[in-house]
């Protein structure tokens, strides 16, 4: 076992429950490297909800709260309010975060509270059998859309930016270096940092969404169907020909605003204004 895993992984909890080829291991490695880059292991705590990706922090030698389905964000907000010196990382999935946890996502983003949220998006409910999720692509045939999905997939990054999240990025498991840097950047950012990660699920989304169960080939598809933007560009008109990006999903850092007011700072300012501090 390499030095990073020796330092961060609970060996007594191995093997993980992740299916062979799942992208969760790549994301877990990126998170460990980001924490190590920042030198903040002792100051970091993790919170997760329910789902495959919510098990990512449970194998780490950190303070971890494994909470209820869709409730990772309110638990994380409470922890941040109680211990503002902690760097709080939240691991959640597309269903856990945008479906049952969607209401909590709205308020956390609007508050711009200092959390780092890693939303693992595999486009499906993987752990519970392959049902359609809020991010399932159109026409994908799943257990709950047997004739093809007719719902437009939700853009979680666009949603949180609209509400006021001050750091927003999207990467894929095929971009581990950029993902690691972005998680490290998000942890150092004061405000709501939201990082979506497109992650392969060979068992469920492989057959239902991609028509491909080989994880390496799904990662190649991520490279094929995404295009990289510069910071602040979600739809860079004129940067590329329309044909070059048609039907592709932008990846990169879409927003990084270090000057946006952060929630705990506003709380402290209000308490001072009222003579409580």
What does this 3D model show about the protein?
It contains 11 helices and 8 strands. It has 277 residues and is an alpha/beta fold. An 8-stranded mixed beta sheet has the order 2-1-3-4-6-5-8-7, with helices on both faces. Helix 10 (242-245) links the parallel strand 7 (226-228) and strand 8. Helix 2 (24-38) packs across helix 7. The radius of gyration is 18 Å and the shape is globular. The N and C termini lie far apart (49 Å). The mean pLDDT is 92.
Task: Give the SSE string.
Answer: HHEEHEHHEHEHEHHEHEH
The pLDDT mean sits at 92
Global structural class: alpha/beta
Binned, the helix content reads: 25-40%
The radius of gyration over CA amounts to 18 Å
Going across the major beta sheet, what is the strand order? Answer: 2-1-3-4-6-5-8-7
Beta-strand fraction estimate = 15-25%
Describe the largest sheet.
8 strands, mixed
Secondary structure elements and their pairing?
Layout: H1 3-8, H2 24-38, E1 44-48, E2 63-66, H3 72-82, E3 87-93, H4 94-99, H5 102-111, E4 116-121, H6 156-163, E5 167-172, H7 176-188, E6 193-198, H8 205-210, H9 215-224, E7 226-228, H10 242-245, E8 249-256, H11 263-273
Parallel strand pairs: 1-2, 1-3, 3-4, 4-6, 5-6, 7-8
Antiparallel strand pairs: 5-8
């Amino acid at each position: 076992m390499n030095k990073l895993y020796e330092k961060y992984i609970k060996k007594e909890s191995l093997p993980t429950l992740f299916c062979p080829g799942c992208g969760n291991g790549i994301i877990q490695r990126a998170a460990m490297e980001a924490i190590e880059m920042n030198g903040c292991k002792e100051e970091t705590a993790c919170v997760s909800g329910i789902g495959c990706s919510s098990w990512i922090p449970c194998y780490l030698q950190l303070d971890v709260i494994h909470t209820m389905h869709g409730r990772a964000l309110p638990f994380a907000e409470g922890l941040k309010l109680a211990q503002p010196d902690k760097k709080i990382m939240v691991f959640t999935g597309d269903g856990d975060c945008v479906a049952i946890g969607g209401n909590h996502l709205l308020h956390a983003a609007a508050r711009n509270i200092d959390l780092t949220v890693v939303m693992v998006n595999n486009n499906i409910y993987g752990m519970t059998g392959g049902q359609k999720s809020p991010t399932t692509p159109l026409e994908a045939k799943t257990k709950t859309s047997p004739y093809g999905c007719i719902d437009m997939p939700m853009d979680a990054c666009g949603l949180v930016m609209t509400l006021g999240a001050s750091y927003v990025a999207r990467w894929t498991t095929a971009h581990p270096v950029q993902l690691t840097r972005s998680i490290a950047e998000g942890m150092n950012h004061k405000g709501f940092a939201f990082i979506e990660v497109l992650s392969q699920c060979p068992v469920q989304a492989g057959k239902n969404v991609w028509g491909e169960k080989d994880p390496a080939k799904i990662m190649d598809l991520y490279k094929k169907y995404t295009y990289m933007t510069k910071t602040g560009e979600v739809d860079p008109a004129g940067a590329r020909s329309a044909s070059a990006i048609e039907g592709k999903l932008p990846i990169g850092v879409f927003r990084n605003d270090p000057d946006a007011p952060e929630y705990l700072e506003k709380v402290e300012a209000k308490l001072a204004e009222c003579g409580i501090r």
